[in-house]
Amino acid sequence: MSRSKTKQIAIYGKGGIGKSTTTSNISAALVQAGYKVMQFGCDPKTDSTNTLRGGEYIPSVLDLLRENSRVDAHQAIFQGFGGIYCVEAGGPQPGVGCAGRGIITAVQLLKQQNIFEELDLDFVIFDVLGDVVCGGFAVPIREGIAEHVFTISSADFMAIYAANNLFRGIQTYSNKGGALLGGVIANSINTDFQREILDDFVTRTRTQVVEYVPRSLTVTQSELQGKTTIEAAPHSEQAQVYRRLARRIAEHSESKVPSPLSQQELRAWSAGWADQLIEIERKAERLAIAS
Amino acid sequence: MTINLKTTEAETREQRLGTIVQWEGGAAQLARDSAFTYGCARGCNNGGRRLCEATTPFSQASVCAETLAVTNATTIQDSVVIQHSPIGCAASQSITCRYSRDLAARRGWEVENPKSMCTNLVENDMVFGGIAALEEAIRAAWERHKPKIILVATSCATGVIGDDVDGVVQRMEAELGVTVVPLICEGFKFKHWSNGWDVIEHGILRRMVRKPTRRQEDLINVIHLGGPDVFTPLLAPMGLRVNLVMGINRLDRLAEMSEATATATMCFVLSYLAAGLEQEFGVPEIKAPLPYGLDATDEWLRDIARVTGRTDSVESVIAGERARIAPELARLRRALAGKKGFVAAGAAFAHGLIADLRELGVEVDSAYSFHHDPSTDSGDPRQDSLGYLVETSGDIPNFTVSPDQHFQVHAALKRAKPDFVICRHSGSTAVLAVRLGIPVLPIFYSNDGLGYEGLLTIGRAILRVLPRRRFCEDVAAHSTFPYQPWWLNQTNPFASI
């Protein structure tokens, strides 16, 4: 494989949607496929890389910065499953300081010390908290950091709103050398209508679904052991899904500027789907009565 | 209009008064279009339009409202001011030290270095919050100086990260037993530096003025910008004691403001405090036109006499003062006849200086106001100082509103071609005028033009600077400006760039 250029990827999504779970499984699958990978958690909770290190928390870049006037970025890099380089940006305790500024500070430190180049990485995957709420959380999609952004979304409307917000952020930076959108990782998709909702959303916003990831008990069981599904249940169907997803991301080369929906369009779109869902429910009830 | 003292944060002037910082046109039009109740209160209905603020591409020379608030907090005696900010925000404190000492000396008070500290916030404080640094600074301030009061000024940095300064202030007051006053002054919130006055006056009103236990019938609060007490000679003959506040303060003087019989101000830009004293403690604000020029000073004194119940003595004071200054005033008018002046100062103060010059027989057809307040906190049309000026002495055809922008001052002076410039502060306008070959009278302590004596003070000072034209022309001959030729010849400060 070519080591000429590190592929930098950012994964965004609404809180609790399964970003860290999915990201860690992508990292694990990539490292198994022979790539050199770094996973960079951008969440003050510092739990992005837990399942890559047996459930263990690692000191964050900002922990080190808080305690030392000079920090060697290597001190913030820990190896996990298959040799994955794990880094956590860290951040302030809830309700104080500025988590966005924290991400800027942490990313800048690694950039200034040429860490990404030095480790000769194939992939750096940024796992970024939630919505693009301020400039700090947009750092991974700004110039010189990630090239490709993937967003994780379920068919839940709030998750789709967050994805649409991310699309707006990407659009903002798209003509300034920022990252472009690779597509949507459809998570917790177990029914046809969930798939249809997301398919409809990506069509309207001119992007694509990279992979449909079903909700699975195997993921929960693996996480309770402090492991990724790739590590804990390598032969499971879910592990195959994650491997397929990782392969698609590895093969992905051309990202695009999305076409986010306006607030008004998004409201109208979700209202339309609400009507359809009621109809689906009624149909199911009628079928149940008839049988 | 109500001042909200329940919150730690003063509402901005832009929000309360509709303050603008960019405008160009005739003073009469600006007065007519301003938001005062000019229309309904004066029997016409063409006032109170929404002012259309102009724009310029630069903001070359201004000052942060935080600096103004912090400077005035620092000059409160027996206090410690803590700037909760990166150290750069505290850069002005060395100048403030000199300023505070000078003010104290001029008032005959003991000259001391003011006490100020800075939390010196760095990157980690931005990420993790600066609250711990603030608590440490407040404890250190108390340990080192045992002040009567501690003032905590916020900054852009702490505003953006949302440091809970109010929470710290409350905790520290409980822990140390000293009054700690937050001054919420993130510079980015304000278009104009004069908001800094409101910030410090808000803090004074909330925490430094005591609940009145009695009325001191002979005490009058006078709010000024600093400098010698020119008020006592006017008001003492009426049996009034002057409680001169702002421009250096003592806590006991601030505390007793609530017991005064009235509050006057030398500039309506500072009238947030006066309006607050009237609203909270029933101390009436003098709303007559400011005492610049003979008639206005007469009316100002009469209004004070009416409000304080001293109408029997006021006419003799007026007559005596007029008679006293008449010979020299006549001499000054003769000496200044045919001269043309240009005024650059802040809003009501600029209006006052123009009135002085016109009283002295000087022509003023161009002026530069650092901001414009279309209203005051009282909303009383008698405080419409620009309207009063236009009504009593005519229009100023070239009236520029701009916060001291070099390139605009250059154009305005090229257009005005004055014999001299009179300006507030000794900064950019003064230097620029000299480099254009125009003699300048910079006014640092702004009480110089007040009342009857002020006319003489200003007139004498102008006569002192006029002979400097030759020197200024020499300076101009050796000066260059960093503008393209087309701007060097430009006479419209708002010509599109």
Fold topology:
The complex is a heterodimer of chains A (about 290) and B (about 500).
Chain A: E1 7-13, H1 19-32, E2 37-42, H2 61-67, E3 78-79, E4 85-88, H3 99-112, H4 115-118, E5 123-128, E6 148-153, H5 157-174, E7 180-187, H6 192-204, E8 209-213, H7 217-224, H8 229-232, H9 237-251, H10 263-290
Parallel strand pairs in A: 1-5, 1-6, 2-4, 2-5, 6-7, 7-8
Antiparallel strand pairs in A: 3-4
Helix pairs in contact in A: 1-9
Chain B: H1 13-16, E1 23-25, H2 27-33, H3 38-41, H4 65-74, E2 79-83, H5 93-107, E3 115-118, H6 123-128, H7 131-145, E4 149-153, H8 156-161, H9 165-176, E5 179-183, H10 195-207, E6 219-223, H11 232-235, E7 241-245, H12 251-255, E8 262-265, H13 271-281, H14 294-308, H15 311-336, E9 340-345, H16 347-359, E10 363-369, H17 385-393, E11 398-401, H18 406-416, E12 420-424, H19 428-435, E13 440-443, H20 451-465, H21 469-477, H22 485-488
Parallel strand pairs in B: 2-3, 2-4, 4-5, 6-7, 6-8, 9-10, 9-12, 10-11, 12-13
Antiparallel strand pairs in B: 1-11
Structure description:
The complex is a heterodimer of chains A (291) and B (497). Helices cover 43% and strands 15% of the residues of chain A. By secondary structure, chain A is an alpha/beta fold. Chain A has two domains: 254 residues, Rossmann fold (3-Layer(aba) Sandwich), CATH 3.40.50; 27 residues. In chain A, strand 6, helix 5 and strand 7 form a beta-alpha-beta unit. The model of chain A has no long low-confidence stretch (mean pLDDT 91). Chain B is an alpha/beta fold. Chain B has a domain of 142 residues: 3-Layer(aba) Sandwich (Rossmann fold). Chain B is built from 22 helices and 13 strands. In chain B, strand 9, helix 16 and strand 10 form a beta-alpha-beta unit. The longest helix of chain B is centred in the middle third of the chain and has 26 residues. Chain B is globular and about 65 Å long. Chain B starts with 12 loop residues before the first helix and ends in a 9-residue tail after the last helix. About 2% of the residues of chain B have low confidence. Chains A and B meet through helix 2 and helix 3 of A and helix 6 of B.
